[in-house]
Amino acid sequence: MRDLATSRPRLSTLAFTAAAMLAFAANSLLCRLALLQGGIDPASFGAVRIVSGAIALALIVRWRAGGAEEAGGDWLSAAMLFAYVAFFSFAYVSLAAGSGALILFGAVQLTMFGAALRAGERFAPLACAGLAVAALGLVYLVLPGVSAPPIVGAVLMALAGVAWGVYSLRGRGALDPLGATAGNFLRAAPMALVLWLPFVGGAHADVGGILLAVASGAITSGVGYALWYTALRELSAMRAATVQLSVPVITAFGAVLFLAEPLSLRLGVASVAILGGIALVLAGRARA
User: Fold this and answer.
1) In which region does residue 116 sit, left (phi positive, over 0), alpha (psi from -120 to 50) or beta (all else)?
2) How far apart are CA 64 and CA 74, in angstroms?
3) What is the distance between the alpha carbons of residues 110 and 82, in angstroms, rounded to a whole number?
4) Torsion angle of alpha carbons 245, 248, 251, 255, nearest 10°?
5) How many CB atoms lie within 10 A of CB 219?
6) pLDDT tens per residue across span 88-105
7) What is the pLDDT of residues 6-62, one digit of tens each?
8) What angle do CA 71, 219, 79 make, to 5 degrees?
9) Rounded to an integer, what distance in angstroms lies between the CA atom of residue 244 and that of residue 32?
10) Phi then psi dihedrals of residue 39, to 5 deg
11) What CA–CA distance (Å, rounded) separates 51 from 283?
């Protein structure tokens, strides 16, 4: 019997993977679009995203289980999920979608690589070189300059990446990752009130802003995670990690098409350094 983890993925798996990557990239585009248009404030966007994501995932898990409710996740993971959504939402007040996605993705991967090093994993020389290149690319992106992203937004997005990296590390051994994610969203829903209350005086939302937040929570998060975990059944760890390199690229081009964001030279150079460096780390770890 062939090993599904190392065999060539089926066409349905490729379709699920492509749809999931588009959904993950759309999260940045939806948040930036909602805040750019002023239709909703960042605290309300994050709160609506968490609650709508919790509802969507609960329905998906319940439908999958044939009506029997399944519980999963834990409070610490839920707190990391909440921190990711909160920092993500406020970062996009000032960050462009393309640079925001690149900072987020770079911070996630560097957090996970750092955890591997701390756990005693030895990186091959190729992986060490890639790690250095990716880190330097991230530093270059946020260095002061005319085309540099706002430092506050960059720091917030980096914190979102760290939170998501920790969340991903905690969920690696989950027997039912979709059920765990649904449980974590459900636990994070009350925290959404904590996110919203301090900013209630400046809170505002019109129909368009709410719909964009619901789309981000229910569709590009809830349905996106369901598609991704379905695809992961037939993807090796190397393929799964590598295909995620496409997310910042898709986001950058989507931002050009839908948000009229320019592709700066700094963003281009940083993208090559960060994504290329991460690819070298993955290749070095795969060889090891």
Assistant:
1) alpha
2) 21
3) 20
4) -150
5) 17
6) 999 999 999 989 999 999
7) 455 677 888 999 999 999 999 999 999 999 999 999 999 999 999 999 999 999 998
8) 45
9) 20
10) -80, -10
11) 38
3-state secondary structure 200-229: HHHCCECHHHHHHHHHHHHHHHHHHHHHHH
Torsion of CA 14, 27, 245, 130, to 10 degrees: -160
Helix, strand, coil tally for the chain in percent (to 5): 80, 0, 20
Q: What is the pLDDT of residue 1?
A: 38
Tokens of 245: 């390199």
Q: How many helices (H) and strands (E) does the chain have?
A: 12, 0
Neighbours of 144 (CB within 10 A): 6
User: Cα separation of 116 and 237, whole Å?
Assistant: 14
Grade residue 84 by pLDDT with cuts at 50, 70 and 90.
Answer: very high
Lowest model confidence (mean pLDDT) among 105-119, 231-245, 257-271: 231-245
What are 141-159's pLDDT values in tens digits?
887 765 678 999 999 999 9
Give the sign of the dihedral formed by CA 217, CA 220, CA 222, CA 223. positive
282: closest CA among 230, 227, 244? 244
* Residue 92 DSSP one-character state: T
Exposed/middle/buried for residue 265 (C-beta within 10 Å: 0-12, 13-18, 19+): exposed
Tokens linked to 14: 């490729």
Q: Cα(28)–Cα(248) distance, rounded to whole angstroms? A: 9
pTM for the whole structure? 0.87
Burial annotation 227-246 (CB, 10 A radius, 16+ → b, else e): bbbbbbebbbeebebbbbbb
Between 195 and 91, residue with greater pLDDT: 91
3-class state of residue 40 by DSSP: strand
